[in-house]
C-alpha cells in the first residue's frame, strides 16, 4: 500500500483537516517533476527506449558513491555537497514568543524555481497548521489531567470515609482528619517520591512492575505513608446518583458538605465513572501521540520525495527543524501516558499491570472466518427455502386454494413480523458496510466501546439466522386444509410463529439487560433508535395481532374476530402512535434542556405525523367512507409528508444548500458520486408518499392480497429508513469533523464548589 493511502487510513477522521495535506503537497511535486521532464535536453529524451533507460539507470547505480553501512559514515564529497544549502528554516518571533516557521528557498533563481517556492510555502502552511493544532490539544489534555487529579483526591478521600481502613493498628479516618499531606499531586506534574517533607501522596509516580526488592519498597512505603486528607470532601459535590428526574431534584436539594452519609454504592458508582474517564482520557492521549507520529512521518516522506525529484538535499535541514520543534521535541504526552498507566494499574487494576493495560489498550476486533462461513451458509439455506416455498405453492396450486384467504388473514401477518425485522437488519448491515467503506465513524457516534460494535458480517449472521428459522416455519406451515377428522389444524404447527416470537423476545431481553441504561439526557443514539421504531409501525401492529390471535382467537381453526373488536381498533391506532409519541417527547425534552427552537419545530413535525396516522387509520377502518374524513386524512398526511421530507433532506442530511460548492448538496460529501445524493433525495420523496395507498383506497392489487399489500408498503418504509440512516450519520460525522469532535465526554462523579483555580 502506498504511503498516501496508509496515511489516510490511519487518520482520526474527525481530525482529518488538522493533518498534513499529503496529497496536495504530492500534487505540487508532480508539477515540479512534469516541468523537469518537459525541460530535459533533447538528446537525453530521445536516446533510448524505456527498457534501455532502466538498464542504464541500473548500470549507473554501480558507479554511485557508497553511502556507508551506517549513517555515521559520510564521504568527503558528500560533506562538501552538504555545505551547499538549499533552504533556510527559521521561526518567526512574535512578541518574544516563538511563532510560525518559515522556509527560505535559496535556489529561486534557477529555472522552475517558482514551483519549489510554492512547495515550501505550502509545506510551511501545513506544518504550522499541524503544530498549532497539536499545541492546542496538548494544553487541553494537561488541563484534563489536572481535573482528573482533583477527582482522584476526592475519590481516595471517599474511599477512606466509606471503607474506614485500619493500617498497622492506625485508624486512617482519624489520621486523615489531622491534615497530613495537604498538597495534592497531579497527573500533569511530577513530584519527588522520596526525600521530601511531604512524603508520598496517592498520585506520585510509582513503579508498579519489576520491583526487584519488594521488602525495601514496603519499608519505604511504611515510613512515608500518609493518607489523603478528608477536607477535600468539604469542597466537592458528589454526583453519583442515577440520572433520573427524581434523583436530579434530590441532588439539588441535598446538602453537599462532608457530613453526608456516604454509601458503598456511591463509592462504586464514583469508581466506575472515574474508570471510564481514565480509559477515555488514555485513548485521547494515544490518539494524540499517533497524530504526532503520523505527521512527522508524513513530513519525512514528502521531503524525501522532494529530494528524489529535485536531486537536492533539503530534507535534512527541514527534518532537523521538525525534530527540534514542539511537535518533535515535546514529551508531555508520553510522560502523561506513563503516569496514567501507573495510576490506573495502582488504583483500578489491583496492581496487575497486564490487566490494567489490557483495559487501557483494547485490542482491535478481529474478523472471524467462521462468521463469514455461517452467514453464507444460513443465507444459502434461506435462498433454498424461498425456492422450495415458491415451488411448493405452484405445485400444489395454493394461490387458488379455498383456504388462501383464511391463510393470508390469519397466518401471513404472523410471519410478516419476522420479514420486517430481517429486512431492517439487512438495511442496517448495508449501512455498516458503507459507513466503514467511506470512513464514517459510526461506533463513536453511537457511543460503542472499542471492539464491541457489530460489523456488517455479524448483522448479516443474525439476519440470515432469523430468516432461516422463519422460512423453515413458513414451509412447514403451508397446509391450507383442515384435518377432516378433527376439523382443525395441527396445534403444534399453528404454534410455530408464537415459539419463534418468544425466542426473539427472549434474546432481545437478554441483550438489553447486559447493556447499559441510557442516561437522563437525550442523545443521538436515543433518538436514532426511536426513529427506527417509527419505521416499524406495522411490526408493532403485528405484535398486537399476535396477542389477539393467540389470546382470543381460535388459532386451531385459523379464525379470529380482531377486526370486529372496538378495543382492538383503538389499540391499533395507539400502537402506531407510540413510536412517534416517543420522538415527540424527546424533542420536548431537548427543547427544555438546550433551549433550541429547532427541537420545538421537530416536535411539531412529529405531532403532525401523529395526527396524520390517527386520522388515516380511522378513515381506513370506516365501512362507509365519508368525504370529510377523506379530506382530513389527505390534508394531515400531506402536511406531515411535506414537513418530514423537508426535515429529512435539509436538516437531517444537510442537503439542498443553494450556496454549496456542490450544486444543491453541501460543501463536503463522503460519497464521491454526486448522483447518489440526488437519487436518494428523489427516492426519499417517492417513498414518503406510500401513505397514499390508504387514502386513495387502494386495498388490492392483481395477484396481491390486501395483507400482502400492507406488507409491501411497510417494507418500502423500512427501505426508506435504511437510506435515511446512511446520510443522517454521514451528516453527523461531517459535523464532528468540522468541530474536531473525536471523543465523547465522560461525566465525572465530583465537582468542586469553589473556583477551579484554587488549590485543594
Automatic annotation (TrEMBL):
Coiled-coil spans in chain: 131-158
Localization annotation: Cell membrane
Membrane topology: Multi-pass membrane protein
Task performed by this protein: May transport inorganic phosphate (Pi).
Cellular component, GO annotation: plasma membrane; trans-Golgi network
Domain of life: Eukaryota
Official protein name in the record: Phosphate transporter PHO1-like protein 9
One GO term (biological process): phosphate ion transport
GO MF, one example: inositol hexakisphosphate binding
Protein family (similarity comment): Belongs to the SYG1 (TC 2.A.94) family.
Domain SPX: 1-320
PROSITE patterns tied to this protein: EXS, SPX
Assigned keywords, A-Z: Cell membrane, Coiled coil, Membrane, Phosphate transport, Transmembrane, Transmembrane helix, Transport
Amino acid at each position: 500500500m502506498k504511503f498516501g493511502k496508509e496515511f489516510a487510513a490511519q487518520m482520526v477522521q474527525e481530525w482529518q483537516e488538522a493533518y498534513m495535506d499529503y496529497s496536495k503537497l504530492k500534487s505540487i511535486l508532480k508539477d515540479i517533476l512534469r516541468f523537469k521532464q518537459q525541460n530535459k535536453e533533447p538528446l537525453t529524451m530521445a536516446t533510448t527506449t524505456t527498457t534501455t533507460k532502466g538498464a542504464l539507470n541500473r548500470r549507473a547505480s554501480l558507479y554511485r558513491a557508497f553511502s556507508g553501512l551506517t549513517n555515521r559514515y559520510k564521504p568527503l564529497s558528500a560533506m562538501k555537497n552538504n555545505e551547499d544549502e538549499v533552504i533556510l528554516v527559521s521561526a518567526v518571533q512574535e512578541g518574544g514568543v516563538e511563532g510560525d516557521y518559515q522556509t527560505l528557498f535559496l535556489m529561486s533563481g534557477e529555472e522552475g524555481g517558482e514551483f519549489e517556492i510554492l512547495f515550501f510555502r505550502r509545506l510551511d502552511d501545513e506544518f504550522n497548521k499541524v503544530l498549532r493544532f497539536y499545541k492546542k490539544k496538548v494544553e487541553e489534555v494537561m488541563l484534563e489531567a489536572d481535573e482528573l487529579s482533583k477527582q482522584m483526591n476526592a475519590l481516595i478521600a471517599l474511599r477512606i470515609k466509606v471503607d474506614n481502613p485500619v493500617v498497622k493498628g492506625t485508624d486512617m479516618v482519624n489520621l486523615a482528619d489531622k491534615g497530613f499531606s495537604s498538597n495534592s499531586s497531579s497527573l500533569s506534574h511530577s513530584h519527588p517520591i522520596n526525600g521530601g517533607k511531604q512524603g508520598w501522596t496517592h498520585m506520585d509516580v510509582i513503579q508498579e512492575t519489576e520491583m526487584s526488592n519488594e521488602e525495601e519498597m514496603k519499608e519505604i512505603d511504611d515510613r512515608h505513608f500518609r493518607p489523603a486528607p478528608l477536607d477535600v470532601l468539604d469542597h466537592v459535590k458528589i454526583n453519583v446518583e442515577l440520572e433520573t428526574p427524581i434523583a436530579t431534584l434530590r441532588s439539588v436539594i441535598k446538602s453537599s458538605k462532608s457530613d453526608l452519609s456516604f454509601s458503598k454504592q456511591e463509592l462504586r458508582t464514583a469508581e466506575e465513572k472515574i474508570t471510564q474517564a481514565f480509559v477515555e482520557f488514555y485513548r485521547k492521549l494515544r490518539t494524540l501521540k499517533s497524530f504526532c507520529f503520523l505527521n512527522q512521518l508524513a513530513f519525512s516522506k514528502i521531503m524525501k520525495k522532494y529530494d528524489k525529484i529535485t536531486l537536492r538535499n533539503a530534507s535534512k535541514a527541514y527534518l532537523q527543524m521538525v525534530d527540534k520543534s514542539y511537535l518533535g521535541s515535546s514529551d508531555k504526552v508520553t510522560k502523561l501516558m506513563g503516569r496514567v498507566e501507573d495510576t490506573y494499574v495502582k488504583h483500578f487494576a489491583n496492581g496487575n499491570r497486564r490487566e490494567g493495560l489490557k483495559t487501557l489498550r483494547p485490542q482491535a476486533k478481529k474478523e472471524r472466518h467462521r462468521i463469514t462461513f455461517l452467514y453464507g451458509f444460513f443465507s444459502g439455506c434461506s435462498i433454498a427455502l424461498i425456492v422450495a416455498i415458491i415451488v411448493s405453492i405452484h405445485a400444489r396450486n395454493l394461490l387458488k386454494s379455498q383456504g388462501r384467504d383464511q391463510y393470508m388473514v390469519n397466518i401471513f401477518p404472523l410471519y410478516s413480523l419476522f420479514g420486517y425485522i430481517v429486512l431492517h437488519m439487512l438495511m442496517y448491515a448495508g449501512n455498516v458496510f458503507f459507513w466503514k467503506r467511506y470512513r464514517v465513524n459510526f461506533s463513536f457516534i453511537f457511543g460503542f466501546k472499542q471492539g464491541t460494535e457489530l460489523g456488517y458480517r455479524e448483522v448479516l449472521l443474525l439476519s440470515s439466522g432469523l430468516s432461516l428459522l422463519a422460512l423453515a416455519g413458513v414451509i412447514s406451515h403451508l397446509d391450507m386444509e383442515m384435518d377432516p377428522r378433527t376439523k382443525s389444524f395441527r396445534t403444534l404447527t399453528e404454534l410455530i410463529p408464537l415459539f419463534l416470537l418468544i425466542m426473539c423476545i427472549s434474546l432481545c431481553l437478554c441483550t438489553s439487560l447486559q447493556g447499559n441504561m441510557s442516561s437522563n439526557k437525550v442523545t443521538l443514539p436515543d433518538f436514532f433508535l426511536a426513529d427506527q421504531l417509527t419505521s416499524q409501525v406495522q411490526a408493532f401492529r403485528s405484535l398486537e395481532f399476535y396477542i389477539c390471535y393467540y389470546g382470543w382467537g381460535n388459532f386451531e381453526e385459523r379464525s379470529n374476530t380482531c377486526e370486529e373488536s372496538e378495543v382492538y381498533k383503538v389499540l391499533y391506532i395507539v400502537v402506531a402512535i407510540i413510536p412517534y409519541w416517543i420522538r415527540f417527547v424527546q424533542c420536548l425534552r431537548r427543547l427544555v434542556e438546550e433551549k433550541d427552537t429547532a427541537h420545538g419545530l421537530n416536535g411539531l413535525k412529529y405531532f403532525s405525523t401523529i395526527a396524520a396516522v390517527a386520522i388515516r387509520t380511522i378513515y381506513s377502518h370506516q365501512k362507509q367512507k365519508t368525504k370529510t374524513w377523506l379530506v382530513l386524512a389527505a390534508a394531515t398526511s400531506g402536511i406531515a409528508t411535506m414537513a418530514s421530507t423537508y426535515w429529512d433532506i435539509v436538516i437531517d442530511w444537510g442537503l439542498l444548500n443553494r450556496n454549496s460548492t456542490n450544486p444543491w448538496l453541501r460543501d463536503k460529501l463522503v460519497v464521491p458520486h454526486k448522483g447518489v445524493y440526488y437519487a436518494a433525495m428523489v427516492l426519499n420523496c417517492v417513498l414518503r408518499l406510500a401513505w397514499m395507498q390508504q387514502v386513495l383506497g387502494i386495498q388490492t392489487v392483481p395477484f396481491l392480497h390486501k395483507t400482502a399489500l400492507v406488507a409491501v408498503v411497510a417494507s418500502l418504509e423500512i427501505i426508506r429508513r435504511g437510506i435515511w440512516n446512511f446520510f443522517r450519520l454521514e451528516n453527523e460525522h461531517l459535523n464532528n469533523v468540522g468541530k474536531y469532535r473525536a471523543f465523547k465526554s465522560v461525566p465525572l462523579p465530583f465537582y468542586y464548589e469553589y473556583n477551579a483555580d484554587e488549590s485543594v
